[in-house]
Design goal:
Elements lengths: L2 H14 L7 E5 L1 H12 L6 E5 L21 E4 L6
Parallel strand pairs: 1-2, 2-3
């Protein structure tokens, strides 16, 4: 996720869902990586996330802290036949 994309998305989100309004991120495949990067970068901003067919991008350069996702509901799902 580029910083320009992250900035664009968070500015857009703030204009349509001001902070305090619950937002759950849902992403599939590359969208899951994007959603994961967003929730890792600012977990308190989001009410939760569903990461489908991917994983949280811990090695993507997004600053993370130990226990940073505590209290943020996250589901990571992948099918049994997904390589």
């Amino acid at each position: 996720m580029t910083s320009e994309t992250h900035t664009w998305f968070t500015e857009w989100l703030d204009s349509v869902a001001p902070e305090g309004r619950p937002v759950v991120l849902v992403g599939f495949s590359r969208g899951a990586a994007f959603a994961g990067g967003l929730v890792l970068s600012d977990p308190r901003r989001y009410a939760g996330a569903a990461i489908l067919l991917r994983t949280l991008p811990f090695e993507a350069g997004v600053p993370v802290t130990a226990h940073g996702l505590d209290g943020t509901p996250i589901i990571v799902a992948q099918g049994t036949r997904t390589p």
